[in-house]
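note to self: dont lose this again. the chain is below, predicted strucutre after it. 350 aa total, dont forget to put it in the shared folder this time
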Amino acid sequence: MKIAILCDTHFGARSDSPIFMHHFFTFVDTVFFPYLKKHGITELIHLGDLMDRRKFVNFAVLHETRKRFIEPLLDNGIHTTLLLGNHDTYFKNTSDINSVTELFGVHAKSDLFDIIESPCTKTIGGTEFLLLPWINKNNQEESEECIRTTSAQIALGHLELCGYEVLRGITSDHGLDANILSKFESVYSGHFHCKHSKGNVHYLGTPYQITFGDLNEPKGFHIFDTETRNMEFVPNPNKIFEEIFYNDNDNDYRPTPNFDQYKKCFVRVRVVKKLYPAMFDAFMEGLNAVETYGVTVIEDKTLGCDVSEEVDISKDTLTLINHEIDQLTLENPNKLKLILQNLYTESLFM
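---
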């Protein structure tokens, strides 16, 4: 059997923005459901953070989620197992009140919809899976006992593990010790948004871009084959963030390039070299004529417009923070950097 694996959909993210809601459901409508239909896949496991808001829901977001995601799953006979993520739970220390049960609990009466609020072992397609929803103070002892005693060789969860990347290049210094999961053949998890692997643990990432930090990250969903135990990545080609490196020392932008690929995208222009102001003005005029969601220009005149070394765009905010700290005279600047990094990452994921 082939099982679709999805996680961190965060419906309602970016303050319930209609622009991002359109972006999210473009993936659902044009990538996700067409793939499942084409390949006859009727089993889905969602690894948590179905919704973005822990405390409330926007009715427009709820309507779109119900009509374009939940109901099509049921209408197409797709059995869905949905683990709770930290964004799905109202309180941080218990999962007793959660948005998934409150919003879609009526569907749990169907044989096609299972909400996993507590850790358990479940057999799907002849394969045993340990299912680990968000681990909190209230269920940590139960979760660790399930990890120790389960006979499953594959674990699926919404896990916060120490030593894994919260954002590209930024490693979590707290969370569950991954060594407790060493008994498993493979562990697949949601929660951290950049797709990466270390040892037997694989963070699957978000299905689409949510912030500019996702610009160069692979986005999509996965298919697990219960016979081969292979996990296949299905890419999502849709983008909402784009970046252009402008360098008229190496490139002649006459005539003005075709900017159609940047329609309905947020675009960032990094000025590496600008030797011909008139050419740059024509370039920007052409870009601004396209129906984008907004254009931002980054130009550092103090460096002669040479910002070519600043390439790791997932670190933008933290790079700016660290740069400012480096300008200060401090006895232990790294300690301050670590504190601010932790605050920044907690604001994103909690």
